[in-house]
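Slack export, channel: ligand-projects

TW: morning all. Re-posting the request from yesterday since it got buried. We need the structure predicted with the small molecule present, not the apo form. The ligand is zinc ion; the SMILES is in the block with the sequence. No rush, but it would help planning for next week.
GE: picking it up
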Amino acid sequence: MRVDLKDGRCRTCGSQLDIVADDDATMTVECLECGDSYDVETDAFGDGCMTYYPAALAELMERGDDP
Ligand SMILES: [Zn+2]
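GE: finished. pasting the full token output, ligand included:
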């Protein structure tokens, strides 16, 4: 799931991030530009865990990536 540029950007190049995995404590993001991949807090995008974390969880579950 894509992260809006106003909410968060790649720490390396400042481009758009895609949430590729998440678990109880962190989300793994991957940069669409440079491919950098790293873990962030579940509230890393200033939404109080209310937007990206549950939406990413739901999306990953639909894709069948959930263990
Ligand atoms: Zn990047």
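GE: first-pass observations. Residues 17-63 form one domain. The two ends are 18 Å apart (CA to CA).
TW: perfect, thank you
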